[in-house]
Design goal:
mainly alpha, 5 helices, 0% strand, elongated
Length: 132
């Protein structure tokens, strides 16, 4: 998570500000990729490559992605959904559980219909018609 102590941020904030100045105009994608790759290469040169390093570095990238999506993309998408309408508004996503519940309801309705019919056909009290 990016929430490091404030006293550790000053030097990094200066670097980030300089990088943003370089990247904010034009095609930032390739330059940002190069910068991140250069950081990875520098850490590999300093510490060597290992599964642990690769796992940790890729994990950091994944967490950056998830935090960006959670904090920025989700609220943006929610605003656009309110502004332009929900794509799922007229279509209902049905889960497997909902399908099973629907089948169970149908089975119960059929059972109820048969019991009611049996009672009506035999003109017997309810408990006697259930063969208890």
């Amino acid at each position: 998570m990016p929430y490091i102590p404030k006293d550790e941020r000053t030097e990094l904030d200066e670097l980030a500000g300089a990088l943003v100045t370089i990247l904010r105009n034009g095609n930032f994608r390739g330059k940002l990729n190069y910068f991140i790759s250069s950081i990875a290469e520098g850490l590999i040169q300093a510490n060597g490559v290992s599964y642990s390093f690769l796992n940790d570095f890729i994990g950091v990238l994944e967490c950056v992605k998830l935090e960006l999506y959670r904090r920025v993309a989700t609220p943006y998408e929610d605003d656009k959904m309110q502004e332009n309408g929900d794509v799922y508004g007229s279509k209902r996503v049905v889960s497997e559980l909902e399908i099973k519940l629907s089948k169970d309801r149908a089975n119960l309705q059929e059972f109820d219909r048969k019991i009611t019919q049996r009672i009506a056909d035999e003109n017997e009290p309810v408990l006697e018609s259930l063969d208890l």
